[in-house]
Amino acid sequence: MIKRASIVSASVALGCIASVAPVLTSIYIAEEDAERRERDDLREFATKAVMRAELVSYQAVAALADMAATPGPPCSPAHLAQLAHVIFNYRYVQDAGAYGGGQYLCSPLLGDVREQHLTMSEPDRRSNDGYLIWYRHKNPLSDARQDIQVGRNGNYVSIDAQSYVDLIDPARRPIAVFSTETNALLALSMDADAADMLHAWKQAANVSSDQWHYATAHSATLPLSVVVKSPRNSLLGNWTGLLGMWLSIGVVVGGLFGWLSFRKISQQLSFPSTLEWAIARKRIDVCFQPIVTLADRECVGAEALVRWKLNGLDISPDIFVAVAEQNGLIQPLTDLVLDKTIDELSTFLRSRPSFYVSINVSSEDLQTSRFLDVLTARLEGTGIRPAQIRIELTERIFINADTTRQTIAAFRKAGHPVYIDDFGTGYSSLSYLQTFTIDVLKIDKSFIDTIAQDAASSIVAPHIIKMAHELGVEILAEGVERDAQVDYLVERGVQYGQGWLFAKAMRSKELIAWLGEPRTQLEPMKQCDDS
Ligand code: C2E
Ligand code: CA
Ligand code: CA
After folding, report:
1. Element containing residue 299 per DSSP (H, E)
2. Ligand 1, atom 32: closest residue by C-alpha
3. What string of pLDDT tens digits covers the 531 residues of the chain?
4. Does pTM top 0.70 for this prediction?
């Protein structure tokens, strides 16, 4: 039982693991998948941001080239008209004007400021090809606003730094644009923190953070780089979707595994396999019901009857013997009954050579000489006489008449008397029985029950008794429960009886004790069959 319990618990554990493992694996894969997508998305976003920064810078360069071709002197009406044209044409150019001697001269937005002496600060950078660049420069038009100003050959353009970073992004991921020559921060999106982005830029975006992913991208043509970041949970909506999908797959696969394990366990726990286990472990007992001579109620033998207690419940032999017959388990069951009978009663049988035990055998046991061979081998050297082990066959074996005739003859030849069990309930008739040589006829309990009662079926018993006498076989009445039945049977010459009036089936030790007790009359015993 312990081994089976461990097999069952192992199977249950396996079922659980089989159910849970795919789900856990699914969660892990979903997590990895979401992480990879998040990083890919962010890298793509950084590339878009650097393209925008390039586009804005090229507009400044192109605008200055247009302005260089302006006819007439600086701040002339023709010049101012050309500057207005540039502002209108270049989306990211906010203002375009002329400077000289470190001062603003004019622009369409400032007007002519030559007399106002508006000083220009020193540029943050002078490039080799003549460009002057002011990073985050304060525009004279506004105190609040910081521009990027680019100048060349007396012309300048002002560009709103936000143009570099105002990409349409529903996730509002922070962006920072840096000059790769000076490491200066050119532009920062609304939600970005300058120190944080600068740190990430210096670390080339290799920042370890539980909350953020960072990515960077560099321009191939301009000295520009961008740093972007996205919160790790910014893809949570997507991540939960993926997780949901993987979980569903995990649950389906897990459910399938669980169902298969459950089926396997159910099969293992099926009644026939439990019976097979019980037979193999010899967990089936044998009890012995006394057989008495009716005339003087002397016990002359006993019938071996199987008993099986499963989880504290008595299983009826009528049920499990039939299951054994249908599942190829009857031969090991018959062998088990023989083994236990000899193991438990050999000493007693040797000491009482006239006492016998009858064993029930099924038709399958009689198709070949197998059981007779087993029986003969088992008795060898035990000192038990063959006549002490008798064979009970039911009428059903007569279906295969020729084989049965030979088997019966072989048992009798080997010295084992043969009984026909449950007589009257099966297929045969008395006349059919004439063609077989048997020793004892057991009249079924159903005919004995009606004896000495006013029932129509009570005519069957006297009929069987009469015919048995004519055939010259001895008679054993089954299921005797009342004294009136004994009187009736004795009167008609029935020699033997078996029934609760004399004794119920009992264990071998109790049988031996019961037989040894001095008594004037055998008392009913309550052993195997009473709880
Ligand atoms: P069976 O061979 O006809 O066995 C006699 C049955 O009648 C037994 O039932 C016995 O307990 C019951 N019985 C005996 N006296 C009385 C009585 O006075 N009143 C009542 N009500 N019943 C009585 P059990 O032990 O339940 O066995 C049922 C059947 O199971 C047996 O009928 C036999 O066909 C089968 N069986 C039992 N043991 C074996 C076995 O070792 N091998 C095989 N193949 N079949 C067996
Ligand atoms: Ca029997
Ligand atoms: Ca019977």
Report:
1. strand 298-310
2. 318
3. 445 556 556 666 666 676 667 767 777 777 788 888 888 999 999 999 999 998 998 889 999 998 888 777 889 888 888 899 999 999 899 999 999 999 999 999 999 999 998 998 999 888 888 899 998 888 888 777 778 999 999 999 999 888 999 888 888 899 999 998 888 888 999 889 999 999 999 888 888 888 899 999 999 888 899 999 998 864 445 566 767 777 777 778 777 877 787 777 766 678 999 999 999 999 999 999 999 999 999 999 999 999 999 988 999 999 999 999 999 999 999 999 999 999 999 999 999 999 999 999 998 888 889 999 999 999 999 999 999 999 999 877 777 777 888 889 999 999 999 999 988 777 666 667 778 889 999 999 999 998 877 665 567 888 889 989 998 999 999 999 999 999 999 999 999 999 999 999 999 999 999 998 765 445 555 567 765
4. no
Q: How far apart are CA 169 and CA 166, in angstroms?
A: 8
Q: Which whole-number Å values give the CA distances from 50 to 20, 54, 90, 161, 179, in the listed order?
A: 46, 6, 19, 14, 12
Q: Which residue range(s) make up the domain with 92? A: 37-237
Could you say which ligand is closest to the alpha carbon of residue 305? 1
Atom of ligand 1 nearest to the CA of 481: 18
453: domain CATH number is 3.20.20.450
Task: Tell whether 220 is covered by a domain.
Answer: yes
- Among 292, 305, 366, 396, residue to substitute to test ligand 1 (most atoms within 8 Å of Cβ): 305
Question: Ligand 1 atom closest to Cα of 305?
Answer: 38
CA distance 84 to 97: 9
Q: What is the Å distance from ligand 3's center to 126 Cα?
A: 119
Q: Whose CA is nearest to atom 25 of ligand 1?
A: 305
**Contact assessment for residue 442 and residue 478, using Cβ atoms and an 8 Å cutoff:** yes
**Is 29 contained in some domain?**
no
